[in-house]
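Progress note, sequence design subtask.
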C-alpha cells in the first residue's frame, strides 16, 4: 500500500523513548484503530511536537502512513490535555489500565467504533472527578464483548427470565435466576445487589449512565467479581493492572 498523508483524530496513551531523541507513541483513533507513531526529534528541548505527545493528549494529528506497521507523525493541530489525569497519579493509573485493556483487545489499525467512544467517555469522566473505580468497572464489563466473551446479562442463561434475583456464573457465561441456584454449583454467590450492579453497568448505554452512587462494600465486591471473570476468561497479565492494584493497597 502506498504511503499517504492522513489526518486522524485520537488520543495519545502510551509513549517510550526510541533512539536518541525520538519517541514511539501509541494513538487510539475511532476509524483507523490503534496506531504506533514514530515522532522524530520529540525529545529535543525545542521540539514543537513534544507538547502533543503527553499521555492522554487528544486532538487531530497528521501522519504519514500506509495502513500497517509504524507510521510517522508530521504535525498536529487542536490538541488538548486532560490536566486532571496528568496531575493525579491515581486517575492516571485508572486511565492507563483502561487504555491498556482496549489496546490488548484489538490489533493495530482495526477500527474501534463504539469502543473508542467508550474510551473517550471514561477519559472525560475520570478527568472530571467521577468515581474512577466505577468508570473502570463499566469499561471492563462492556469490553468483554471485544474479547469475544460477552456475557449474557439481559436474562437468565437457563430459562430466559429477565426480572428477579440473579447470580453470576462464569462457567455458564452470564446470569442465572434464583430458580436454579440449587443446581448450578458454578455460581459466584454474589449478593443480589452486586449482580444487579454488574447487569446495569454491562447493559446500560454509556450515554444513559447518570450519577453513580454505590457503597464501598458493593464496589469492592463487584471489583473482585470482575477480576474473577477476567481471570477465568481472558489471559491477561497487564503491568497497568498490577500497578493499579498496588496503588489501591497503598
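Output:
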Amino acid at each position: 500500500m502506498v504511503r499517504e498523508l492522513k489526518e486522524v483524530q485520537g488520543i495519545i496513551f502510551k509513549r517510550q523513548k526510541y533512539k536518541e531523541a525520538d519517541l514511539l507513541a501509541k494513538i487510539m483513533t475511532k476509524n483507523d484503530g490503534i496506531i504506533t507513531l514514530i515522532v522524530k526529534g520529540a525529545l529535543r528541548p525545542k521540539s514543537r511536537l513534544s507538547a502533543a505527545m503527553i499521555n492522554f493528549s487528544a486532538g487531530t494529528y497528521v501522519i504519514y502512513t500506509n495502513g500497517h506497521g509504524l507510521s510517522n507523525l508530521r504535525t498536529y493541530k487542536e490538541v488538548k490535555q486532560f490536566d486532571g489525569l496528568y496531575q493525579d497519579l491515581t486517575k492516571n493509573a485508572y486511565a492507563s489500565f483502561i487504555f491498556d485493556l482496549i489496546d490488548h483487545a484489538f490489533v493495530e489499525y482495526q477500527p474501534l467504533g463504539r469502543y473508542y467512544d467508550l474510551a473517550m467517555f471514561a477519559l472525560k469522566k475520570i478527568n472530571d472527578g467521577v468515581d474512577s473505580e466505577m468508570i473502570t468497572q463499566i469499561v471492563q464489563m462492556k469490553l468483554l464483548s471485544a474479547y469475544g466473551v460477552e456475557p449474557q446479562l439481559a436474562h437468565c442463561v437457563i430459562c430466559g427470565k429477565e426480572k428477579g434475583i440473579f447470580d453470576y456464573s462464569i462457567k455458564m457465561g452470564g446470569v442465572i435466576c434464583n430458580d436454579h441456584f440449587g443446581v448450578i454449583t458454578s455460581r459466584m454467590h454474589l449478593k443480589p445487589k452486586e449482580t444487579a450492579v454488574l447487569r446495569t453497568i454491562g447493559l446500560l448505554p454509556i450515554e444513559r449512565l447518570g450519577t453513580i452512587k454505590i457503597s464501598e462494600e458493593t464496589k469492592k465486591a463487584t471489583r473482585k467479581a470482575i477480576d474473577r471473570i477476567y481471570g477465568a476468561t481472558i489471559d491477561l497479565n497487564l503491568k497497568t493492572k498490577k500497578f493499579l492494584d498496588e496503588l489501591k493497597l497503598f
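The helical segments are 83-86, 89-105, 114-127, 132-143, 192-203, 216-233, 239-249. Work on this subtask will continue into the next period as scheduled.
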